[in-house]
Design brief:
alpha+beta, Creatine Amidinohydrolase, 2 domains, 10 helices, about 25% strand
C-alpha cells in the first residue's frame, strides 16, 4: 500500500526543485521511493513528478518486488547463462521511463550507504552505472539530488515510524536473549551468535516481517573501555564473573533500522562503581530523552545528558555524541545530537540517545535507545531490560 504522506512530500519536493523525476539505485533510496527493499542492490526506481514510478529489478527478484504499490515493474535478466548485458536492458527501461524529461535528480554524493538484503556483497553505483544512465536519458540534465533525498529521509511519516517501531520490536528479541543467556564462561563471539540467531529465527516469525538481518558486537571486561569505537571486534575472550559486558546491536527489518546498546554484569554481582556509573548513565539518558521534542535544539538535548555526567565529575569519560539519526540506514546524519549543533528537532525525526562512560582499567557503560519526535512530544521505540544485573 502506498504511503500517501510520503507520496505528497516527494511530489512537492520535485516541484520545488524543478525536477521531472528522481532516478535511484541505492537500496535505501529505492526503499524510500518505492517501498521495496532490494535483494541484491541492483534495482532502479524512476520516481516521476506526477507521483507515478517505474521499478526496474532483476528477474530473480520478481516475487519479492511484486509487493509494492508500483504497477510499472520491469524485469531484466541477470546472473543467468546466456543473459544479455544487464546495463543494456536497464538502459532501455530507463529511456522509456524518462522520455521527454529535461531535469532528473540522481544520488551522486552518497559517501555512506546501507546494504541490500545481501549484505555480504554490496553493490554500489559507479561510473559504469552513471555512463549508462547518461546514455539512456540523453538530452536531460542530471542534477545531484543528494540533499533533496536526505531532507526527505530525515522526516519520517507515520507509516515509516511504525516500520521503525517494528524494527525495534525485533531488536528487543536480541536484547532479551542477551539478558537471558549472559553468564561467565561464554565468549564474546558466542554471545554474538546467540543474539543474532534469536533475532533472525524469531523475528521472521512475526506476521508483518519478511526479511531480518542482525549485526551484533559484544565486548567484555577491560575491552569495554573501547566500546565507544564505531566498530568493535567480538573475539573468543572468555567472560568472567563480575565483568561488564556491552552489546551494540544493529538490526534491519525489511530495510528499516534499529540501533540499541545494553550493558550487563556477568554473574549477577556488580561492584559499587559499576552500579554507580550505570545509574549515572541511565539518569543522563533519561534527562536527554525528557528534553526531546520538536523545536528543541540538538545541542540542548546533548547538554541534558552531558550536564548530568559532568555534574558527577565524569565529563572526560563521555567521549562521543549523544545521538545520531537512524531509519533508512544504521547511522544517518540528521539529526546530529551533539555539542554545538543548534539545529532543532522536528516532528518525524528518529534518533538514538546513547550517553556512555569509558575508562581504561575500569571498562565502559552505555545505554542506547531509539527515540522519535511525533505529535509534539517524544516516543521511545526501543524496549528491553536496561538494568545492569
Amino acid at each position: 500500500m502506498r504511503d500517501s504522506a510520503r507520496h505528497h512530500r516527494l511530489v512537492e519536493a520535485l516541484r520545488t526543485a524543478d525536477l521531472n523525476a528522481l532516478v535511484c539505485r541505492l537500496p535505501e533510496n529505492v526503499l524510500l521511493l518505492s517501498g521495496y527493499w532490494p535483494m541484491s542492490g541492483f534495482s532502479f526506481v524512476v520516481y516521476r513528478a506526477d507521483g507515478e514510478a517505474t521499478l526496474i529489478v532483476p528477474s530473480a527478484e520478481e516475487a519479492e518486488s511484486a509487493d509494492t504499490w508500483i504497477s510499472d515493474r520491469q524485469l531484466f535478466e541477470w546472473a543467468l547463462v546466456g543473459a544479455p548485458d544487464p546495463y543494456e536492458q536497464i538502459g532501455v527501461y530507463l529511456k522509456q521511463a524518462c522520455r521527454g524529461m529535461k531535469r532528473i535528480g540522481v544520488e551522486r554524493e552518497f559517501e555512506w550507504v546501507a546494504p541490500a538484503t545481501n549484505a555480504g556483497e554490496m553493490a554500489v553505483p559507479s561510473e559504469l552505472t552513471w555512463r549508462m544512465v547518461e546514455s539512456a536519458i540523453e538530452g536531460a540534465t542530471l542534477v545531484d539530488a543528494t540533499n533533496l533525498l536526505m531532507d526527505q529521509r530525515a522526516v519520517k511519516t507515520d507509516c515509516e515510524l511504525e516500520r521503525l517501531a517494528l524494527a525495534n520490536q525485533v531488536a528487543a528479541i536480541g536484547l532479551t536473549r542477551f539478558t537471558q543467556t549472559l553468564e561467565p564462561g561464554r565468549t564474546d563471539a558466542e554471545m554474538v551468535g546467540l543474539v543474532e540467531a534469536a533475532i533472525v529465527s524469531e523475528g521472521t516469525r512475526l506476521e508483518e516481517v519478511s526479511r531480518v538481518r542482525a549485526f551484533a558486537q559484544v565486548s567484555s571486561g577491560p575491552d569495554t573501555a573501547f566500546a565507544w569505537r564505531p566498530c568493535v571486534i567480538s573475539t573468543d575472550r572468555t567472560i568472567h564473573a563480575g565483568e561488564i559486558v556491552v552489546l551494540e546491536l544493529g538490526v534491519v527489518v525489511d530495510g528499516f533500522w534499529a540501533d540499541n546498546t545494553r550493558t550487563r554484569v556477568a554473574g549477577g554481582e556488580a561492584s559499587e562503581q559499576q552500579l554507580e556509573w550505570h545509574a549515572i548513565v541511565r539518569e543522563a539518558q533519561q534527562s536527554a530523552i525528557g528534553a526531546c521534542q520538536a523545536g528543541v535544539p540538538c545541542d540542548e538535548v546533548d547538554r541534558a545528558a552531558r550536564s548530568v555526567i559532568e555534574h558527577r565529575g565524569l565529563g572526560d569519560y563521555f567521549v562521543h555524541i549523544t545521538g545520531h539519526g537512524i531509519g533508512w540506514r544504521y547511522h544517518e546524519p540528521v539529526p546530529f545530537v551533539a555539542p554545538g549543533n543548534p539545529e532543532p528537532l522536528r516532528d518525524g525525526y528518529v534518533h538514538s540517545v546513547e550517553p556512555g562512560l569509558y575508562q581504561e582499567g575500569f571498562g565502559g557503560i552505555r545505554i542506547e535507545d531509539i527515540v522519535a519526535e511525533q505529535g509534539g512530544t517524544h516516543r521511545v521505540l526501543s524496549s528491553g531490560d536496561r538494568s545492569l544485573v
